[in-house]
């Protein structure tokens, strides 16, 4: 029997209508994925049904897409040790990054089936005291918790508000292209969380080049999502997001974003054990049924068309 958190009737309707979720087939889908993971000898002790249902929903219950996405999830994390490892939220260096509050999910939406909002305040990245990889480490820690806990974000997706206020050339110099490319894979192709729109605030003079680079890092699917540039006009932002659900700093009625960031600090500290466990999830060679016990991945073993071999991450 599966162990999945119940969802509201509203979310269940969205999952059925948009994600092809059929309550009578969930258990059989989970069984197939569990058996497949055991066959690959991946770290199944860290994978529970709530983790798997996020991927099923993110892939609209296509088993082949789930297999590809999960394999990529494991593999790309092994390619990014500087982001996935050493993520103890009680560590002084990690806690310092958490308290910068660069990436913060907002708690509320107008409707219970609206995409959740994730604000990224790039200018809060203190380039003199940390690296871009450090910032992404904390962002990935937040994503790991959201993927497990936030049914609305998993089912309805998320809208990004990228605030470029305070961004300077020194920020852009810290964005290594190879690392950016792998992070883009981590947060798009390897993630069950679906993008539902991107909103750019406070672009600095000459930011178009950086925005073009950002657009080039988007997956083909996300390039077709709407990207809005609002300049410094909060009224333009409010045409898409009611002030009732935005923090004070964005002309909203909610508590300040720094207060929300403090709440996330507490949540990360409370989930220390889970975050350390998730750092163990990375790709390991597996013995295929036809490899004679040798650690040689095969198409048959993966159940998808050359998932590891065709990632071209190096």
Automatic annotation (TrEMBL):
Q: Which PROSITE patterns match?
A: CRAL_TRIO
Q: Which Pfam families match?
A: CRAL_TRIO
UniProt-recorded Gene Ontology molecular function terms: phosphatidylinositol bisphosphate binding
- Kindly give the InterPro entries that the UniProt entry links to this protein: CRAL-TRIO_dom, CRAL-TRIO_dom_sf, CRAL/TRIO_N_dom, CRAL/TRIO_N_dom_sf
Can you tell which superkingdom this protein's organism belongs to?
A: Eukaryota
Q: Where is the CRAL-TRIO domain?
A: 91-258
> What cellular-component terms does GO give this entry?
membrane
Q: What is this protein called?
A: CRAL-TRIO domain-containing protein
């Amino acid at each position: 029997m599966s162990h999945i958190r119940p969802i509201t009737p509203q979310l269940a309707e969205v999952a059925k209508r948009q994600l092809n979720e059929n309550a009578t087939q969930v258990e059989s889908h989970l069984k197939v994925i569990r058996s497949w993971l055991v066959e690959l000898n991946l770290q199944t002790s860290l994978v529970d049904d709530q983790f798997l249902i996020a991927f099923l929903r993110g892939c609209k219950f296509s088993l082949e897409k789930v297999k590809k996405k999960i394999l990529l999830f494991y593999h790309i994390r092994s390619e990014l040790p500087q982001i996935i490892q050493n993520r103890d939220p009680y560590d002084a260096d990690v806690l310092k990054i958490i308290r910068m509050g660069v990436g913060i999910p907002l708690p509320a939406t107008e409707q219970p089936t609206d995409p959740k909002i994730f604000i990224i305040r790039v200018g809060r990245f203190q380039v003199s005291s940390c690296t871009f990889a450090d910032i992404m480490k904390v962002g990935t820690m937040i994503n790991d918790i959201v993927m497990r806990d936030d049914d609305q974000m998993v089912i309805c997706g998320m809208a990004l508000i990228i605030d470029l206020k305070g961004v300077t050339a020194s920020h852009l110099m810290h964005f290594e292209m190879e690392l950016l490319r792998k992070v883009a894979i981590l947060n798009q192709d390897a993630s069950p969380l679906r993008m539902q729109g991107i909103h750019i605030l406070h672009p600095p003079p000459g930011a178009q080049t950086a925005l073009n680079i950002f657009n080039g890092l988007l997956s083909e699917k996300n390039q077709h999502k709407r990207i809005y540039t609002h300049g410094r006009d909060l009224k333009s932002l409010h045409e898409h997001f009611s002030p009732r659900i935005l923090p004070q700093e964005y002309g909203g009625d909610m508590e300040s974003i720094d207060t929300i960031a403090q709440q996330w600090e507490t949540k990360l500290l409370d989930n220390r054990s889970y975050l350390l466990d998730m750092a163990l999830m990375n790709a390991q060679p597996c013995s295929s049924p036809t490899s004679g016990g040798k650690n040689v991945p095969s198409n048959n073993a993966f159940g998808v068309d050359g998932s590891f071999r065709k990632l071209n991450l190096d």
